[in-house]
Amino acid sequence: MDLGIAGRRALVCASSKGLGRGCAEALAAEGVEVTILARSRDALERTAEEIRAKTGAKIIAVACDITTPEGRTAALAACPEPDILVNNAGGPSPGDFRDWEREDWIAALDSNMLTPIELIRQTIDSMVARGFGRIVNITSSSVKAPIEVLGLSNGARSGLTGFVAGAARRFASHNVTINNLLPGAFDTDRIRKVNEAVAAKNQISIEEVRAQRQKSIPAGRYGQPDEFGAACAFLCSAHAGYITGQNWLVDGGAYPGTF
Questions:
Q1: What b-and-e string marks burial along 82-113, b requiring 16 or more CB atoms within 10 Å of the CB?
Q2: Which of 154, 228, 231, 258 has the largest CB neighbor count within 10 A?
Q3: Domain-wise residue ranges, the chain
Q4: According to CATH, what is the number of the domain 9-185+226-250?
Q5: φ/ψ of residue 105, rounded to 5
Q6: Is residue 40 within 8 Å of residue 84, measured between CB atoms?
Q7: 240: left (phi over 0), alpha (psi -120 to 50) or beta
Q8: Would you give the DSSP letter of residue 90?
Q9: What is the pTM of this model?
Q10: What CA–CA distance (Å, rounded) separates 165 from 147?
Q11: pLDDT tens digits along 61-111
Q12: CA quadruple 169, 172, 176, 180: dihedral positive or negative?
């Protein structure tokens, strides 16, 4: 299927690896000009070269901390009026909420709630003016089914979800959509860190945690970043203009609920 977005411009946050990279690759494969962001310049430049070689697309790499005003200024200078915005950030560290101070909560909110909202604020009016915009926020399946050791993530990402639910409908008539993608267990650095925390808490091996987690997923495995990227690319496509304000679970069937 031609997704109808060749020639569009995308800004993809935290995209040197993992799910963000999966999204950047999928968009680049559709002929989108992609600006990728991450804090580590070396890893980012390697990723940019690899995606260029694989897709032939124009890839712009900007090393910055998107959670800071300076980082957002640098990102938007490189891609001032994106047609597509993919918000993404590394999740806060797992742990016990009794050990967290106010500063930990503020950092989680800055990264996983307030930064995406600020990027939406700075880009959505130009999308409305052009009559096309696709915003996808990478959140977490923990928004639907909270994970005990991820309290910081549960709280911050749920706040973003509530904001999107209120804001998305306002712009739908302009062919501008805002949706959330909720990843379950994907084979990334993030899941490895979570597995390490669970293993330490329960005094079992990481291999046991991985096996137990995969057994609990109806698909019987962890997801791969390219699968996630394909879902993101569809939500960003010309065909997805009638989908907005939604929370798409991509979790191999792990969430057991009906709604």
A1: bbbbbbbbbbbbbeeeeebeeebbebbbebbb
A2: 228
A3: 9-185+226-250, 187-222
A4: 3.40.50.720
A5: -65, -40
A6: no
A7: alpha
A8: P
A9: 0.93
A10: 22
A11: 999 999 999 999 999 999 999 999 999 998 777 778 888 899 999 999 998
A12: positive
